[in-house]
Design brief:
Elements lengths: L1 E6 L4 H4 L13 H9 L1 H7 L3 E4 L3 H14 L3 E3 L16 H7 L1 H9 L12 H19 L4 E5 L1 H12 L6 H6 L5 E4 L11
Parallel strand pairs: 1-4, 2-3, 2-4
Antiparallel strand pairs: 1-5
Helix pairs in contact: 5-6, 7-8
Length: 193
Amino acid sequence: MRIALIPCGGTEWHTESRLLGRVEVPLTPEGEAQCLRWLGALRAAGVKRILHAQDELTTATAELLARQLAVPTKEVDELVEVDLGLWTGLTEQQLKTRFASAHRELSEAPLHVSPPDGESLQAATDRLCGCLRKVIRKNGKAAVGVVLRPLTFALARCALAGTALTEMWATALHADNPVVIDGPQTPEPPAAG
């Protein structure tokens, strides 16, 4: 099976380097143009369907791409972004200043991190891996696109591509192009270690 992990298109918050969390923000015209630049890679990957969470941003990204690719979309609740709680809207520098030990853990042992009033990264990883197992089982050999916000994009990439979890935070901060993964193994949540 082939899965194309597709980051959500750009927003004003992306431009300002703010953590999105689950806040509703629209695609910018630049974000729409960014999505259109991905079409060649998604066509080459053979994407036949695009899955996304129910929020405005991933829905807009999925629908824009699906119209161009002439494929259907489907909302999947479990693809929702990690709830960043009080971190939502912060820049990385603000996070580093206000939550120094948690910021350090994001690079060293991310599954130990739980944003204040948010969702633990371990719980988000468990939810996402369960969802990806269903996607793999239900879609057989058909190539599927999955539109994700930054942290779920990074967690999915780590789970499907076998990328070290210590790369998760850097991947989330630079999730600006689709990643096509061929023949992914069944994702299992990594141990918190």
